[in-house]
């Protein structure tokens, strides 16, 4: 698995920081989240748009979401 280089000091990650938490700043992206297969094994990491709940493994696709 690839390491995350842009983590904050507390270990969290904001994939696309918006500055303020205003609704007008753009989509709020959360992640990485862990996806599991039917046996409970980790099979992917994904990010999600809080507004429309779109999930993707490529954060670039959420850059212009909503």
Task: Describe what this molecule looks like in 3D.
By secondary structure, this protein is mostly beta strands. The protein is built from no helices and three strands. A hairpin with a 5-residue loop joins strand 2 (42-49) and strand 3. It is elongated and about 40 Å long. The model has no long low-confidence stretch (mean pLDDT 75).
Secondary structure topology:
Elements lengths: L28 E8 L5 E8 L5 E2 L10
Antiparallel strand pairs: 1-2, 2-3
Concise overview:
0% of the residues lie in helices and 27% in strands.
**Class of secondary structure makeup:** mainly beta
- What is the topology, as strand order, of the major beta sheet? 1-2-3
Which regions are unreliable across 5 or more consecutive residues at pLDDT < 50? none
- The helix count comes to 0
Tell me what portion of residues adopts beta-strand conformation.
25-35%
Distance between the termini: 29 Å
- The helical percent reads under 10%
